[in-house]
Amino acid sequence: MSRKHYPAEYREQIVKLARAGRSAASLAQEFEPTEPTIRSWIAAANGTVTPEEVELRRELRQVKRKLVRVEEENAIFAKAAAWFAKETIKTPDRSSSS
User: Fold this and answer.
1) DSSP secondary-structure letter at 94?
2) If you ran DSSP here, which 8-state letter would residue 34 be given?
3) More confident position, 3 or 78
4) Which 3 state secondary structure label does DSSP give 17?
5) For residue range 19-49, what is the model confidence (pLDDT) as tens digits?
6) Cα–chain-centroid distance for residue 34?
7) Residue 35 contacts by C-beta under 8 Å, 6 or more apart in sequence?
8) What is the pLDDT of residues 51-74, one digit of tens each?
């Protein structure tokens, strides 16, 4: 999943609108970025969060999503391995003679 990169000028314009009294929610409805994205831009512009922290948070969310996916895949592989082990151990029925 790729994320859209917004130019610095675009982010600055959104922040200016927020400083002029617009809420992050109304900006998110009118423009493309999500409300949390806009809030992080405002925080970064206010100096409460550095751009590096914003990037680290983005990377952390990405890693957490990947971890969830890998854990789901591991659960599927574990179930498949158990099923194959069970199928391999089965002995032929004694009632049938060859």
Assistant:
1) T
2) -
3) 78
4) helix
5) 999 999 999 999 988 998 899 888 888 877 7
6) 14
7) 24, 25, 27, 28
8) 778 788 889 999 999 999 999 999
Tokens encoding 58? 């983005």
Cα 46 to Cα 76: distance, rounded to the nearest angstrom:
45
CA-to-CA separations, 94 to 56, 85, 90, 91, 97, in angstroms, rounded: 62, 21, 12, 9, 7
Residues 6+ apart with CB under 8 A from 58: 3
Query: Which residue reads 């032929």 in tokens?
Result: 92
Which of 66, 65, 42, 40 lies closest to 54 in space, CA to CA? Answer: 40
CB 27 within 8 Å of CB 34:
no
Q: Is the pLDDT of residue 93 over 80?
A: no
**Identity (one letter) of the amino acid at 38?**
I
Q: How many residues does the chain have?
A: 98
